[in-house]
Design brief:
Elements: E1 10-11, H1 14-18, H2 20-30, E2 33-37, E3 43-47, H3 50-57, E4 62-63, H4 66-69, H5 79-85, H6 95-104, H7 109-113, H8 116-135, E5 140-142, H9 143-148, H10 150-160, H11 167-178, H12 186-211, H13 219-231, H14 241-271, H15 274-282, H16 287-298, E6 307-309, E7 313-315, E8 318-320, E9 325-328, H17 330-334, H18 368-385, E10 390-391, E11 413-415
Parallel strand pairs: 1-2, 3-9
Antiparallel strand pairs: 2-3, 4-6, 5-11, 6-9, 7-8, 10-11
The structure holds protoporphyrin IX containing FE.
Residues 88-89, 100, 156, 250-251, 254-255, 258-259, 262, 300-301, 304-305, 330, 357-359, 363, 365-367, 370-371 line the site of protoporphyrin IX containing FE (HEM).
Length: 417
């Protein structure tokens, strides 16, 4: 058994954001379970090989509920942090089981399949807008601003019952919340703004319910009804006020950040692999499988969210001491040649089953069926509407966002004709 290393082998910073897979390849080879230094100065353990990542994600000794299990006498969460943090991605059973059950029904593959016509309509309207801009003479268009961002944000806002006119606001808040670097205090300021936004929205929907003008056919209204059951003492199948606000916060952020990057980075991967792009164009039946291959290949998230140990836990032959943070590098696992032959090659006909871009274990992505459907509709429509789509920048000049968690482009300039 190896002793823990004293010195962090990975430092998340500008080089890492630009090419995380190069770092991960080195780690898988040299130090598959190693210490890393986070941009905020925190230390964590980084797990990079497929088998270790998968085992760690399913290991109940790796906990998520830091707000109640990692407390120390000198740390008292402020009201906003306390409110926004109590969501299912920060919960362990039994709270996790209860919270997930409240929203799981809305995200099953069957329920989500019913959203296809609406997703297709949103997609086609956005592509009409892009085409009109091209016809009006715009030579290049940022595919993120025009398509990859508005599609998932529109879908999640409609599902939740959040006014779409506020989408630019969310984009700014959400960017600040997931960024690893930025103005000091911008994370907290965005958290406070989102907290006030959601408490206002909940109050308005409650009023509509009380006036008899609600509930709307949306998830915020449904959760408010579930919250009412809690007030009535039915706490086994409901949620408290803090959990309600945190649930909306999580669903809104998780519902668009990642899918935007699946669409944008996926488009980049296809445009830089013309053979695979041509294959997909001539064999559209490959599309559903190709979405999973694109997820495996581009990885909208570099790693799963933090877990922590409460006792020493051995991973890949290394003993991680108690009270340490652990990051499972899902992007690295998906490029582990021990699991996916020629892992660094995009192959839209490959069986990418078993990839961990959506995580693994009890926190496996709740929105996976929705993300897959959005990806399928988005790529299908984009490729058929714009047969001459091409990159309008040298791929090496593209900038990636400064986040250790999210792997996403700042912009993606494309030409349509
Ligand atoms: C391509 C798009 C997406 C990717 C790559 C992705 C990835 C992930 C991953 C890796 C996890 C597990 C994190 C962990 O274990 O630390 C996760 C969890 C989650 N995702 Fe997604 N996600 C995507 C889209 C969505 C969408 C559209 C929603 C819709 C609301 C969503 C909602 C969630 C939720 C609520 C969780 C927490 C589940 C739990 O803790 O039980 N995600 N996602």
């Amino acid at each position: 058994m190896t002793q823990p290393e004293a010195v962090p082998a990975v430092q998340f910073g500008a080089d890492f954001y630009q090419n995380p897979l190069a770092y991960f390849a080195r780690m898988r080879e040299e130090r598959p379970v190693t210490r890393a230094l986070m941009p905020n100065g925190d230390r964590a353990w980084l797990v990079t090989r497929y088998a270790d990542v998968r085992a760690a994600l399913a290991d109940p000794r790796l906990h998520k509920d830091w707000a109640s299990k990692m407390t120390s006498p000198d740390w008292v969460p402020d009201e906003v942090t306390g409110y926004l943090s109590v969501h299912l991605l920060n919960a362990d059973p039994p709270d996790h089981t209860r919270l997930r059950k409240l929203v799981a029904k809305a995200f099953t593959a069957r329920r989500v399949a019913g959203l296809r016509p609406r997703i297709e309509a949103i997609t086609s309207a956005l592509l009409d807008g892009i085409e009109a801009r091209a016809v009006a003479g715009e030579a290049t268009i940022d595919l993120i601003e025009a398509f990859a961002f508005p599609l998932p944000v529109t879908v999640i806002c409609e599902l939740l019952g959040i006014p779409l006119r506020d989408q630019d606001q969310f984009r700014a808040w959400s960017n600040a919340v997931v960024a690893s670097e930025g103005e000091p205090g911008s994370f907290r300021a965005a958290g406070v703004a989102m907290f006030h936004y959601f408490t206002g929205l909940i109050a308005a929907k409650r009023k509509a319910l009380a006036d008899g003008t609600g509930p709307g056919d949306d998830m915020v209204s449904a959760l408010i009804v579930a919250r009412g059951a809690h007030e009535g003492g039915d706490s086994g199948d409901s949620l408290d006020e803090r959990e309600l606000v945190a649930m909306l916060f999580l669903l809104l952020i998780a519902g668009h950040e990642t899918t935007t990057n699946l669409i944008a980075s996926g488009a980049l991967a296809l445009l830089t692999n013309p053979g695979e792009l041509a294959r997909l164009r001539t064999q559209p039946g490959l599309l559903p499988g190709a979405v999973d291959e694109l997820l495996r290949f581009v990885n909208p998230l570099n790693h799963a969210t933090e877990r922590f140990t409460l006792e020493p836990v051995e991973i890949g032959g290394v003993t991680i001491p108690a009270r340490e943070w652990v990051l499972c590098a899902t992007a690295s696992a998906n490029h582990d040649a021990g699991r996916f032959p020629e892992a660094d090659r995009l192959d839209v006909g490959r069986d990418a089953g078993g990839h961990v871009a959506f995580g693994h274990g009890i926190h496996f992505c709740l929105g996976a069926p929705l993300a897959r459907l959005e990806g399928e509709v988005a790529f299908g429509a984009l490729l058929s509407r714009f047969p001459s789509l091409s990159l309008a920048a040298d791929p090496s000049s593209l900038r990636w966002r400064p986040s250790s968690l999210i792997h996403g482009l700042e912009t993606l300039p494309v030409r349509l004709r």
